Amino acid sequence: MWIIAYIVLLLAPKAQEGQVLANFQAGNEMYQQGKYIEAVEKYQSAIETGYTSPELYYNLGNSYYKLGDIGHSILYYEKALKIQPHDPDVAYNLEIAQLQVVDKLAVPPPFIFTKLWNSVKNALNISQLGTVTLIIYVLLMVLLMLRLVLRNEQVKRFAKIAFIPVLIICIFSTLVFVQRVQEDIYHKYGVILVEKIDIMSSPARDATEVFALHEGLKVRITDESGDFVKIELADGKVGWMKKSALEVI
Prior knowledge:
Layout lengths: L1 H8 L4 H19 L3 H13 L5 H13 L3 H14 L4 H11 L13 H10 L4 H24 L3 H34 L1 E5 L3 E5 L8 E6 L3 E8 L2 E5 L5 E5 L3 E3 L1
Antiparallel strand pairs: 1-4, 1-7, 2-3, 4-5, 5-6
């Protein structure tokens, strides 16, 4: 994965490229030498310059895992998958890290159609999906212009035949893209980074404790009030917790 990262780095702004590449390479060298604290510092320095990539997040997650910091390792594996869904290396390491999470939620398996829809919807990241949707839309407009402008009957017949399936694909792609954008805006997820956190019934210091959660658990953030965020778990439980105890993916 590091080779891919070097290629991506070529697209970084020239003013930052040298610094980013130096930090990334230094992080790799520190990791290979077993100096995981130094590797984390170098990778974080690369992020602070504004550069992000699934490879950088993956390497950072590995470094935190070597340090026994399960919360941060899961956080950065999740960040990597958000950019590059279905990466087998990241998915495998995330699964291994999640085995060490204390909280095991009893979540019923999704219906087969829901699972299939989620697989299709999340096959690409939101940037890739937007690009594909735009390309399909342009192709649709080209076919429409061919039908209206050209006089060549063979070309017009081809454009007429191809127009309907491309239109259907365009509508489907647009619907998927719109849903992904809505999820990106309204569905925020975070990872708990402290060893243990009390979950309260309301966003107040004297509120009743309803349950406790532990480091590394992924939660959905549904609301915010002052220093507190409202969270929802995969099994349906809800509550309020200190915002400082987690980081948004």
